[in-house]
Each structure stands twice: as C-alpha cells, then as structure tokens.
Design a protein that fits this description.
alpha/beta; two-stranded parallel sheet; 10 helices; 12 strands; globular
Length: 285
C-alpha cells in the first residue's frame, strides 16, 4: 500500500505572545475542499493566497464537523481543524479543563466557554461578518453563532446567492476597522460564503440549469483570491495581525455518488488550513 500523505507541519506559534499584542483574523472559507485548494495553489491560480501559505502549501487537516454549524461551534470552542497525521497536536487556543492532551505551553488558555469570550476578556473587540445562513440572525438558530460576538453583521448581499458576496463582506470589514479606536485590539471573524452552493455564477459560461460543479467551486475560490488581499490589508492596517485561514468542511460533487455535505466522505472531512502573520508595513504599500 502507498504511504499516506503527511502534512508539512507549521512552525510553532506561542499564542500567549500573540494575544494582547496582535489583532487576530479568522477566516473560514466555507465549504472549501482541500483537493481543490491544493490544485489551484499548485497551478498558480490563487496567487494572493498562495504567497501567504507557509512553505507555499496548504496544510492538510481534518475538519471538526461536517457542516457549518457543528464545525463553527467546535472552532469557537478552540478546536480548529486538526492536522491530518497522528497526534496529539498542540492547539493554538483551548478552554481551561483538566486532562487536555492538546493544551501545550504555547496554547492560549481561557477560562470562558469559548474563544470569542476568552479574547473579549483579554480586551479584544470581537466582530463577526457572517456569510452563510447560520450567521444571518433571521431566527433563533441563525443567531447562536453571531451572538457570541460584541458586534455581528449580516446582509443578503453577504450570503450565498450574491455573486459579489466577498467584496461586500470586505467593504463592511474595512468600515468596522476604520471606526475602531487605534488602541483597541480586534478579533475579526469572516465567514466567506462564496464557495458554498450556489457557486455556478463564478465560472464564465456556466448556467443555473447546469448547476454547481467542482469547476465552479474552483472558480469561486479564484474569485475569493482576487479580493482577499484587501481583507489582509485592512486586518493589518493598525498593528501586526495573526491570521488563520481555513475551511470548516468540504463538500461533494458526485464523489462516490455523494452530493453536498453533512456526511462522512473524505472530501467533506479533509480541509485546507494555514496560519501566518500579516505585517502592517505591507498593508501600507
């Protein structure tokens, strides 16, 4: 049997030095498949993301959930996607509880129920810019995740049906950041909806009747890449920023007969992940 693919480990980061000194950006590229992300990076089709990736590569990880709500509940509890190799793997963030094998010296440990309130306790202003329906605040379920934050934003123009959703989300992020006092630390979370179905309108020549495909999913990632530099620039415009960019889960386009997510296929559980520092000097260029 062939040897399993082993992810390139990321350099260790002491989050106890980051928290309090840096702004923090968490971007979930909702529904992004690992294989599509890797293919586009290797082909030079997502240059703005690729130049930020440590070692020039996405890290292969396993999602903490198979759909948005479950995965984000875990992520906000400190359980980011797990490296796809035997562990345990030290975590960046963790709630304080006895017996945690993934809490290490460099882990930022908080004594609140979730990371968002843990950072708020450290003086961070927490902001959510939602994308998919679990962030739309249009009912009790859609209010749970954004309700964790000091400030939460969602409009239909940020959602899955808008061909310009990510540009609209970035514009709101720029507005929010521009209105903050310079001394205020920021935890900004952006749930990017563009990869999620429907995404056919991101591929020239595709039609609503033909629907979504792996190719339209890839085109949606190219769309995100064309604009994500603006988000990175805004997030690092006031001070150094620590950024996490990952998928919350993948999705199936006919793989072994499966379509969609909230199911146990490898294309759903396997996700791309990266974290890196953003320099404010670069934002000023």
């Amino acid at each position: 049997m062939p040897e399993p693919e082993m992810p390139v480990p990321l350099d260790p980061v002491d989050m106890n030095e980051v928290v309090g000194s840096h702004d923090i950006l968490l971007v979930t590229l909702d529904t992004l498949r690992h294989d599509v992300a890797v293919e586009l990076a290797e082909a030079g089709r997502i240059p703005h993301l690729a130049r930020r990736l440590p070692h020039g590569r996405w890290e292969k990880r396993h999602a903490p959930g198979s759909f948005t709500y479950a995965s984000h509940q875990a992520i906000f509890a400190g359980f980011l996607p797990t490296p796809a190799a035997p562990g345990p793997h030290p975590r960046l963030f963790a709630a304080s509880f006895a017996g945690s094998e993934s809490t290490a010296d460099g882990t930022f440990v908080y004594d609140t129920p979730d990371l968002v309130s843990g950072l708020a306790k450290e003086g961070y202003h927490t902001v959510c810019i939602g994308g998919v329906g679990f962030f739309n605040r249009q009912g009790p379920l859609g209010s749970v995740l954004p309700g964790l934050f000091h400030e939460a934003h969602w409009e239909p123009e940020f959602g899955v049906t808008s061909p310009h959703s990510f540009e609209n989300q970035i514009a709101r992020a720029e507005q929010v950041i521009g209105e903050l006092p310079a001394e205020q630390r920021l935890f900004l979370f952006v749930n990017v909806s563009a990869l999620h179905q429907p995404n056919w309108f991101h591929l020239p020549g595709a039609t609503r009747e033909a629907g979504d495909s792996r190719a339209t999913h890839a085109a949606a990632l190219e769309y995100v890449d064309r604009h994500i530099g603006r988000l990175f620039a805004a997030a690092s415009s006031r001070r150094p920023c620590f950024a996490i960019v990952c998928s919350d889960h993948g999705t199936a386009y006919g793989d072994d007969g499966y379509t969609g997510h909230r199911l146990g296929h490898a294309c759903v559980w396997t996700v791309p992940y990266a974290h890196f520092f953003l320099d404010p000097a670069e934002a000023a260029r």
